[in-house]
Predict the structure.
Amino acid sequence: MAYQGPAYGLSRDCMLKAQAKFNLQDALVALKWIRDVTQLNLDPPGSDKGVQDQIDFANVLKDGIALCTLINRLQPGTVSKINTMKAPFKERENLEMFLKGCEMYGLKRHDLFQVNDLYEKKNLYTIVNCIFALGGMAKKKAFDGPTIGVKVADENKRIFSKEKLEMGKTIIGLQSGSNQGASQRGMTPYGAPRQILPDGR
C-alpha cells in the first residue's frame, strides 16, 4: 500500500466525513454474519480484543479471503481459486474477484465498493453497506443460512393497455397543480383599467 501522507483542506474534510459515516456496530454485525456463514476466525491480526475500530475492521477483511469464502458459500463456485499468499497484488485480486462475484450474484454497481476503499482503509462504510446489501440479496434468493440486511424487493412490473394509457393523457396529475378550488375566473383581465364604482369600491 502506498503511503498517502496527511490530508489537508478539502481532502481532510472528505476523509473526516467518510470516517463519520462508519458505524462500528453495523460493522460488527457484518463481521458476525461473515463468521457465521464461513466459520472463519475474524479476529484482527495480533490482537485478542476483537475488532475495536474501523482499522481493525479493514485489517480483518483486506486480504479478501473471508469475502471470497463468503460469496462462495452463497453461490458455490463463484471464485474458483482464493489466493492465500500474503502479497498485495494477490490480496487485491481476491477483492476484485469478490466484487465480480457480487455482481454475478445480483448486486448493482452502486452497492459495491472500490478495492482501494478497503485495501487503503478509506471509505470503509461502503464495505459495510456492501455486506449488508449482499445479505439482503441472500434473503431474496432464500439462502439456507443466516442472513442480514433488508430483503431486496422483487420486481413488480405494471403493464397497461393502450386504452388505459390514452385515458391517462386526459387527466391532469396533481403534481402539475390542482385543477380544483380557487381560480381567476371573473377577475379583471390583464391590461384592463380598474373599474371605480360610485360607492368607492
Summary: The radius of gyration is 28 Å. Residues 66 and 187 are 73 Å apart (CA to CA).
